Amino acid sequence: MNDSFDITIIGSGPGGYVAAIRAAQLGYRVALVEKYDTLGGTCTNVGCIPSKALLDSTEHFHTAQEKFREHGIETSPVALNFAQLIQRKNKVVGQNTAGLQFLMKKNKIEVVQGWGIFKDQHQLLVKREGVPDRLLSSQYFIIATGSKPASIPGVEINKQRIISSTEALNLKEKPDTMVIIGGGIIGVEMASIFARIGVKVTIIEYMDRLIPTMDHELGQALKKILAKLHINIILKAKVQSAVQRREKVTVSFIHADHEEQSLSADYCLVAVGRKPYTENVGLDTLGIEKDSKGFIKVNHLLQTTLPHIYAIGDVIGGAMLAHKAEEEGIFAVEAIAGKQHPIQYHLIPGVVYTWPEVASVGYTEEYLKEKGTPYRTGKFPFSALGRARASMDTEGFVKVLADPKYGEILGVHIIGPRAADLIAQAVVGMTYEVTDEDMFRISYAHPTYAEALKEAYLMASGQGALNL
Ligand SMILES: Cc1cc2nc3c(=O)[nH]c(=O)nc-3n(C[C@H](O)[C@H](O)[C@H](O)COP(=O)(O)OP(=O)(O)OC[C@H]3O[C@@H](n4cnc5c(N)ncnc54)[C@H](O)[C@@H]3O)c2cc1C
């Protein structure tokens, strides 16, 4: 077996597998090392894909219960088969991981199953129980080892009743009650999944709003929408501890009014963020530097302390998103090949798959205010849109922030139906620096949700909306 490669990639998440394919396309001999049996990393196995599968299933259930009658569809009471819900999710994950295996084979990428540890600057030892170690030598390496769930002091994820999203996506039975610590993206998506099937969910969030990293108006609107799902949302509260006794967990927290309170639930889901995963990769042996939070330090070319070793994705921090990891995977490989297409980090969209969905690109209104950047706002509600009325999806709005003098689009923030897909056209417009008026003047099919964007662009350009 020839164990000598041009590029060896450690970790097969969206960063790693995309880098592997791009490298193979550019003619490199590539190895992809993965410690788990299936490819795809967090995203495919325990992140993006399974969570979206469960979000879709539970949204169907909720729609059947809440909207069918209004649409004129009569059913006998709709019942939930929780085991089937999880089984379908597993099938979707299986289809995706199998698809990745196929892609690796098609691109002649050598998949090496096992734990990768640097032996020296050009050799990686791959260990796997029950099979002999392999020593891969490589000219370049890309570290794409991802992240794992983080927690807070006083709360230890025991994977039984105090769980992370990984366990929550694989519960054996539907719980009655759940406390979710953290009202960020993963927290609100998980809350939606469980609340829609009748679980009594409480979100405890430290900040004064949900999805705190996004434009504030989005978090405020989302809070009202989630409250309609009977999710109890406690803001400005600091969790002190989570303690499991038999089959219950008691979560104690101090509210902004300084009063200590506690809640008991079947499960406590910890969704307070993720931390870089660099355990036993041998970084210290090579002197590869990390920052104070444990993220691998990289330069503008994504090179670590050692120029032939690159790092990408969650393990280097920034937006912990699959598509950000993918962009970096392509960038690192192309940098090795001497090509450079800089990543516009500021134009990487962020999406929350609640219903309605939330999606954002560019600057938030708060950021522009803080920087003293002048801007004009165009805001259009979905309730004024024919398409939204037809589908009974009238909640939410599109907000466009644009430069008042030149019409450059500075930020687009959407909460509404299919926001995750709608944001793509805003990314195109902003990437090519098209003005708000240009974005209005292109033709939008009628009736579509996208027409809300057309109206908001028009309003941001300083003119009145056509349909408001
Ligand atoms: C519940 C949930 C939902 C999410 N939903 C979305 C979403 O909708 N959209 C989105 O953009 N992002 C989403 N994310 C985030 C997304 O999953 C991550 O940003 C993405 O997976 C990061 O990709 P990565 O390639 O950096 O690392 P990962 O996907 O974490 O992959 C790293 C891989 O490296 C392997 N590995 C680690 N160390 C070693 C070693 N020493 N040897 C061999 N292999 C090793 C790991 O086993 C793993 O397979 C979600 C995350 C979670 C938890």
Tell me about this structure.
The chain has 468 residues and is an alpha/beta fold. The protein folds into three domains: 4-148 and 275-345, FAD/NAD(P)-binding domain, CATH 3.50.50.60; 162-272, FAD/NAD(P)-binding domain (3-Layer(bba) Sandwich); 356-460, FAD/NAD-linked reductase, C-terminal dimerisation domain (Enolase-like, domain 1, 2-Layer Sandwich). Helix content is 33%, strand content 26%. The protein contains 15 helices and 22 strands. It has helices spanning 14-25, 41-46, 48-66, 68-71, 82-106, 165-168, 185-196, 216-227, 283-286, 322-336, 365-371, 386-391, 419-431, 436-441, 451-460, and strands spanning 4-10, 30-34, 110-113, 115-120, 123-128, 131-143, 147-149, 162-163, 177-181, 200-204, 232-234, 237-245, 248-255, 260-265, 267-270, 274-276, 309-311, 350-352, 357-362, 376-381, 397-402, 409-416. Strands 1, 2, 3, 4, 5, 6 and 17 form a seven-stranded mixed sheet that branches. α1 runs parallel beside α10 and α3 (48-66) packs across α7 (185-196). The radius of gyration is 24 Å and the shape is globular. The termini are far apart.
